[in-house]
Amino acid sequence: MHLGICYYPEHWPRERWPIDAQLMQQAGLTYVRIAEFAWQRMEPAEGAFDWDWLDEAIAVLSDAGLQVILGTPTAAPPAWLTHAYPEVCAVDAEGRAQAHGARRHYCFTQPTYHRHTERIVSALAERYGHHPAVVGWQIDNEFGCHDTVYCYCDSCAAAFRDWLRARYQTLDALNAAWGTVFWSQTYTAWEQIPLPHRAPAYPNPSHALDYIRFASDAVVAYQQRQLDILRSHIAPTHFVTHNLLGKYPEINGYDLARPLDFICWDSYPTGYAEFAAGDFDGALYGSDDAPGPWAYDLGDPYVTGFCHALTYGFKQHPFWVMEQQIGQVNWARYNPGVRPGALRLWTWHAAAAGADAVVYFRWRACRFAQEQYHSGLLHHDSNLDTGYDELLALQDEREPLAALTAAPVTAQVALLFDYDDWWALRLQPHHRDYDYLREHFRYYRALTQLGLTVALLPYEADLSAYPLVIAPSAHIGTEERAARLTAYVEQGGALLLGARSGFKTPENLVTADPLPGPFRALVGATVVAWHSLPPGASYGLRSLGPNLTGMATGWAECLAPSAPQTETLVAYSDGPWEGYAALTRQPLGNGQALYLGWRPTLEQTRALLIYLARGCSLERGPQLPEGLVALQRGEQRLVFNFTDQPQRFTHAGRQLTVAPRDFISLSRAGDAYANVTPAL
Ligand code: GAL
């Protein structure tokens, strides 16, 4: 496994570079990512390039044995550019152009910006595409960071119409697909079609979903422009990647990752944990359940693990963490400092979840500009910070780390995750707490708690290796999806479809068929009614199969078996649908398809999964106390303690203890890298 560092030579005097490079080398770092925000230093005026500093920086790093990952600098267009060509700046939903002074202020569809992008990326690739010290490229930086995917400029309006023309060919087709007869929205010329942001009421969901798809496609197309240039100049051995934000809703991660050699994400566990609970978009817990007893400075392993799993699923291939937190961040609400153990724990946790390399952010804390309060491996004053000492200690574990990352990533259960489903439900949640991502997260958490391994996958993935597949909400139903899932079940798989499945068509219209639309024959049940349940409202449940208690809350659907062999596993015990089914199961071919008609709580999800795991003969890991999580890669199952206290559990008849901020390997408990970090 390779370890690396994000470095900004342009932030420091040249005399310092060799000292830094030497210290990096001594800490066992092999990769150094540079230059992703340095456009102005590369091209101080239009067409006038200055490569001296970058040549020298690369030479200094290379002399210390480091290999360089070059970032294309397009996340930070220089002031001369935005001043001379103000049209490149994105326009927000209120019609205001973004100003210079930070980053990511550009529009993805703007032709002038494309021209400048092509010039700087070509120049960079021509110069360093065959440089012996360069091993790979990162395109731009965190597309979408600071919520910058949606732009409402004239260029986007025109590009959106082109996108619609390509999709629908005729206005008649578009009008039919969007149901524009409603409220007299019918379009009789392409130019009439607006971007869906300034209308007084909420937008037409078909119009809005197409805009969301278009905006994601625009980012992917912008990346492709850069990719084409890079591929035509760089050595075939160089990799090209991008560093995504974890769980970011506005870009289809599968589409973005597809043309890249591998995908990366930027992991900031304490920052992400701070935003995991609460009443806002993207909070993985929301108001559902309180997060566990984590040490304040380690983040939440479910949240971090979920983002790792999501990123793995984008290519179903090991990924990199291109920015790994090492100390406090500067952008959350509390930004705690971290103690010894954190860097090591996060590194191993990432490796066990499918990371092949971890690149730490950042080398040295910066004295100026936006990120003054952000930590580095070195303090502002250049003294070594906690993270650096930990890296030195990690040197002794490089061999077992490499052995772990040499092993394949496998999982027992697949959770189907799809952007169209997510986007359609974000547009019309119909219940203020209904959140597609949160539904997935609850399953991920329950599965992990039960010691079952899980992969987040697209519908198109080969599911044959997974005995159990769960679609928490296969919201958009298509015949093709139904056929694939039916084939999976007939060949022996167990499928659980959750509530709200098959409700919509790809056009974001409600299906014209009885619910769950195209999945009805597959599950052998019909949804005859559905209710959104406000806080305080609930329907009783009586289980005939899983050992499950509690009520249906949040969302409930009334099911009627509609195939001869369909059985009722859970029924409503009171309320308007007393006696009707809430969970059904149909045996089909060599497998079985279940339909779950309510939104389960965490406890109910666990009970359901225990029942399903038993039915699928899935082997579960040991029962772990709250605060411990297990991940498996290859043959190794590692148990991580994200709490402040030593934790005990029993495995194979043995009492095992995991120190705080530490982990043990179940296959090698008691020796090797068990409990080596002092608890401070
Ligand atoms: C990331 C970004 C970095 C830096 C970091 C601070 O989102 O890619 O450039 O800003 O956050 O935590």
Keywords summarizing the entry:
disordered C terminus, 25 strands, 19% strand, alpha/beta, binds beta-D-galactopyranose, 3 domains, Rossmann fold
Description of the molecule:
- This protein is α/β, with parallel strands linked by helices and 680 residues long.
- It has three domains: 2-146 and 237-405, TIM Barrel (Alpha-Beta Barrel), CATH 3.20.20.80; 413-615, Rossmann fold; 628-675, no CATH class.
- Strands 10, 11, 12, 13, 14, 15, 16, 17, 18, 19 and 20 form an eleven-stranded mixed beta sheet that branches.
- Strand 6 (243-245), helix 9 and strand 7 form a beta-alpha-beta unit.
CATH class of the largest domain: Alpha Beta
CATH architectural group of the largest domain: Alpha-Beta Barrel
Span of the ends, CA to CA:
27 Å
Indicate the low-confidence ranges by residue numbers: 669-680
The total beta strand count reads 25
**Helix percentage:** 25-40%
Task: Tell me the β content.
Answer: 15-25%
Chain-averaged pLDDT: 95
